[in-house]
Specification:
This protein is α/β, with parallel strands linked by helices. The chain has 10 helices and 17 strands. Helix 2 runs parallel beside helix 9 (261-274) and helix 3 packs parallel to helix 4. The protein folds into 2 domains: 2-89, Elongation Factor Tu (Ef-tu), domain 3 (Beta Barrel), CATH 2.40.30.10; 93-208, Nucleotide-binding domain of ferredoxin-NADP reductase (FNR) module (Rossmann fold, 3-Layer(aba) Sandwich), CATH 3.40.50.80. The strands form 4 sheets. The protein has a 7-stranded mixed sheet with strand order 12-11-10-9-13-14-17, sandwiched between helices. It is globular, with a radius of gyration of 18 Å.
Length: 289
Amino acid sequence: MFKILKNTQLAPQVFHYLLHAPDIAKKALPGQFVIIRLDETGERIPITISDSDPIQGTLTFYVQAVGKTSLEMSHLKAGDFILDVVGPLGNPSQIDLFGTVVLIGGGFGIAAIHPIARALTQAGNKTISILGARTEELVILENEMITASTSVHVVTDDGSHGTKGLVTDILKKMIEKKEPIDRVIAIGPLVMMKAVTNLTRPYNIPTLVSMNPIMIDGTGMCGACRVTVGGEMKFACVDGPEFDGHAVDFEGLLNRLKTYISEETEAKEKYLKDTGGKCRIVKVSQIYG
């Protein structure tokens, strides 16, 4: 049993959790994740570790409430418990002195890119972070990213905060100006990561993406998280989650993620029906006044 020390809503559908998990916190590294199960009848879902404190024995992570389990999790309060938390899982991000690294976090992916940006900055790299979201209220961890990075650009689809446009617009301008870029790391929606890799490929800029496909056990046994990389079958849980973006078969993965849409929708609708349609999700204006 793992005790929730904090559950705070940061944006519509986005919740911040502080969890007491001392054994995992001692070993967690940037880029790794955990598999959680809320109760004995619950499903197993992967969650990226956004921060860990080995002294306090805590893990920080962010959950987007979009499916049955994440909606159910949004109702948990400080003092409640999660039955199973397994980790740290996956290969940690490579932290070395590369030079100039552009880190791109799309929407919820900002939470995953944060510890990597901080570690790369501490390693002596110039880190340029590009944060993208649909609208201002969906931009998360901006202040934390400013602290973790050398510089930060914010982009929103509607122009309500930062620059209007897409994360690739900022990256394209940097490339066109021939600014030095030694590595790009992109984490977020598949379509965003695909667009980033298509942009960097002609320039041979090393580009890493983090895969978060359907995952069950997180140890390579079930094969649910398979992804084709360079024509070979890989498992995101043990071979990744980071891969060479230029080698990832994004089309195949996008198609695979559609496999259980009907079942996921059915589970979510049943949960909302059983709970009377109640959901903790509120507008940001209701949070901050």
